[in-house]
């Protein structure tokens, strides 16, 4: 037996000897600190974690505290947003941008102006720092949701790899340096996909609807609830931006100028800071017919890929949703009127499918494509001016293009092989991905349980 000693951290045993006992908070603190205690890794997983966690964390801090706070590299996306918010709060015209210049323009609709208006309560510098922090936190939460979507723990080796890759990329680095809202949009995408997979349709629609209120970059993802029959998504996806617009419209001095001036500009294509086919085509003076030919050609590839995904993978929910998301968004960046490199942040769900056995990303051309639109490397050269400029200006366009080609080629090869072998009714995954493999945890709720099979003799 032991007797409680006043003070809460000692006990006396039967012989009267006093022994120290840690209180619960102290014990938890000690356990936490022991996790940080330097020790020699015993497994490959521990080696990867010990190596990458410090590098990943310091890289993220460098991007946020140094590069982003320094800012003002090439362009500043935050200043026109702050000026618009300040004008909105002071009942002044918002949509006054000179679209003849190459400076960043304010393009958010009145609903977006209403949402971002609070940033002008602070002075520009502190407001910008807070906006950077909000985007960084949003990206971190989105990465956590991405890990959970693929049933990966924060203690797995995937976590530091994902963190390091994300904050080393051009898309996240420039999002923070230019200080735009893409980090928050990425969070909206991940919340939408997570809730969509859980069949919480109204909340999923609310998540994507909030992003629509600011910018409709995720609009192609509405194809997912459309083909999956999740109709309630559309109620809140459309309702939230409409309600916010109804509130913002009478509070704006010049809401109709958004319709008269900004909307026509949004429908045009520009030949600067534009990695879409049409943007680079115009920059290099390609014939209009050739530009349209390339756009229509890639559109056919996208449609074929989407059909193969829906026809043969729609019951494999995780693979289908993540891969289709990547195809839809890449196509919108490449084939639309405006595609900027840092939009590629929205493609992380597709890249994360590499952990799945049947991923279309398990080949080197796919990651050659990823380098094109994710790398922070600059190919501008003071020695090779023309070729260096071409490599720098084209790499994002070529990366998106190659990614779509890889997805289509993998799916088409699987389809042709399955048709040749007469197993289309079983799906198009190669036999080596299906035989002797454990049942997939991401099977659709209404999909039948796999039948037990006996391996042929001699295997």
Number of strands: 3
Number of helical stretches of at least 4 residues: 19
Q: How far is the N terminus from the C terminus?
A: 61 Å
Mean pLDDT: 88
| Percent in strands | under 5%
Low-confidence stretches: 1-10, 436-459
Instruction: Round the Cα radius of gyration to an integer and report it.
Output: 26 Å
Characterize the biggest β-sheet.
3 strands, antiparallel
Specify the helix fraction band: 55-70%
Order of helices and strands: EEEHHHHHHHHHHHHHHHHHHH
Principal-axes geometry comes out as globular
Give me the side-by-side strand order of the main sheet: 1-2-3
Structure classification:
mainly alpha
Tags for this model:
three-stranded antiparallel β-sheet; single chain; mainly alpha; 19 helices; disordered N terminus; 3 strands
Q: How do you describe this structure in short?
A:
By secondary structure, this protein is mainly alpha-helical. It has helices at 24-36, 44-70, 78-89, 110-116, 124-149, 158-168, 170-178, 182-197, 201-214, 223-228, 232-251, 255-266, 277-283, 288-313, 317-335, 348-352, 364-374, 385-421, 431-434, and strands spanning 3-5, 10-12, 18-20. A hairpin with a 5-residue loop joins strand 2 and strand 3 (18-20).
């Amino acid at each position: 037996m032991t007797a409680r000693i006043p003070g809460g951290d000692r006990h006396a045993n039967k012989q009267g000897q006093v022994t120290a006992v840690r209180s619960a908070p102290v014990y938890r603190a000690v356990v936490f600190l022991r996790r940080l205690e330097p020790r020699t890794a015993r497994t490959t997983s521990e080696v990867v974690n010990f190596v990458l966690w410090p590098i990943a964390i310091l890289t993220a801090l460098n991007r946020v505290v140094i590069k982003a706070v320094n800012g003002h590299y090439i362009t500043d996306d935050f200043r026109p947003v702050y000026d618009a918010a300040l004008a909105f709060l002071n009942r002044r015209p918002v949509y006054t941008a000179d679209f003849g210049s190459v400076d960043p323009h304010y393009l958010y609709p009145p609903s977006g102006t209403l949402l971002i208006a609070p940033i002008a309560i602070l002075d520009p510098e502190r407001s910008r720092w807070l906006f950077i922090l909000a985007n960084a936190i949003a990206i971190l939460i989105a990465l956590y949701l991405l890990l959970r979507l693929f049933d990966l723990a924060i203690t797995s080796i995937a976590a530091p790899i994902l963190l390091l890759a994300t904050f080393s990329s051009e898309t996240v680095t420039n999002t923070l340096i230019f200080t735009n809202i893409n980090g928050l949009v990425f969070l909206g995408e991940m919340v939408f996909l997570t809730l969509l997979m859980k069949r919480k349709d109204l909340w999923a629609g609310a998540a994507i609807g909030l992003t629509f209120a600011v910018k409709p970059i995720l609009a192609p993802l509405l194809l997912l609830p459309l083909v999956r029959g999740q109709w309630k998504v559309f109620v809140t996806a459309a309702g939230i931006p409409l309600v916010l617009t109804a509130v913002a419209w009478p509070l704006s001095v010049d809401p109709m100028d958004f319709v008269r001036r900004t909307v026509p500009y949004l429908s045009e294509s520009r030949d600067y800071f534009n990695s879409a086919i049409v943007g680079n085509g115009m920059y290099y003076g390609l014939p209009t017919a050739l530009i349209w030919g390339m756009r229509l050609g890639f559109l056919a590839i996208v449609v074929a890929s989407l059909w193969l995904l829906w026809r043969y993978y729609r019951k494999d929910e995780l693979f289908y949703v993540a891969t289709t998301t990547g195809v839809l968004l890449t196509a919108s960046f490449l084939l639309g009127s405006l595609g900027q490199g840092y939009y590629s942040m929205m493609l992380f769900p597709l890249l994360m499918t590499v952990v799945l056995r049947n991923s279309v990303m398990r080949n080197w051309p796919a990651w050659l494509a990823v380098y094109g639109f994710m790398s922070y490397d600059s190919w501008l050269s003071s020695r090779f001016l023309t070729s260096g400029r071409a490599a720098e200006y084209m790499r994002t366009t070529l990366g998106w293009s190659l990614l779509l080609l890889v997805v289509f080629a993998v799916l088409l090869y699987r389809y042709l092989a399955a048709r040749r072998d007469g197993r289309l009714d079983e799906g198009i995954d190669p036999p080596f991905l299906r035989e002797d493999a454990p049942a997939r945890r991401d099977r659709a709720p209404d999909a039948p349980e796999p039948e037990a099979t006996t391996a042929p003799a001699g295997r």
